[in-house]
């Protein structure tokens, strides 16, 4: 499992950095990429598009994208945009790791 942890405002200006971080994590060839958005204070549609595209890309390769977002602004954006219907969203990193690492095979 690869972990990408981001913080601050994620908008058009942060897209290249996020895209590079996701590409690096995907390049590690783990079955799951976890993106921890707990420290994010703002998320725009550009970043939402990147997350959905990455989820689809990983799914084509039989892999998964998982998001972590506390009950903050970002969690509301993910819900309103319907991303939480496409990508699993966990309320804490602990909950995500517990589910992913302890999931029966």
Q: How many distinct helices?
A: 4
Name of the CATH first level: Alpha Beta
Chain-averaged pLDDT: 92
- The strand count comes to 4
How would you describe what is shown here?
The protein is α/β, with parallel strands linked by helices. The protein has a single domain, classed as STAS domain (Transcription Regulator spoIIAA, 2-Layer Sandwich). The protein is 45% helix and 27% strand. The chain contains four helices and four strands. A four-stranded parallel β-sheet has the order 1-2-3-4, with helices on both faces. β1, α1 and β2 form a beta-alpha-beta unit. The longest helix is centred in the middle third of the chain and has 16 residues. The model has no long low-confidence stretch (mean pLDDT 92).
List the helices and strands and how they pair.
Blueprint: E1 2-10, H1 15-27, E2 32-43, H2 45-60, E3 64-68, H3 73-80, E4 89-90, H4 93-102
Parallel strand pairs: 1-2, 2-3, 3-4
In short:
This protein has 105 residues and is α/β, with parallel strands linked by helices. The chain has 4 helices and 4 strands; from the N terminus they run βαβαβαβα. The chain has helices at 15-27, 45-60, 73-80, 93-102; strands at residues 2-10, 32-43, 64-68, 89-90.
């Amino acid at each position: 499992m690869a972990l990408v942890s981001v913080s601050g405002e994620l908008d058009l200006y942060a897209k290249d950095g996020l895209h590079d971080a996701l590409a690096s994590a995907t390049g590690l060839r783990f079955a799951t990429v976890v993106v921890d958005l707990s420290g994010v204070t703002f998320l725009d549609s550009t970043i939402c598009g990147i997350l959905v595209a990455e989820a689809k890309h990983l799914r084509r390769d039989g892999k998964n994208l998982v998001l972590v977002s506390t009950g903050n602004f970002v969690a509301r954006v993910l819900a309103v945009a319907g991303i939480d219907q496409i990508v699993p969203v966990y309320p804490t990193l602990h909950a995500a790791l517990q589910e992913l690492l302890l999931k029966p095979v």
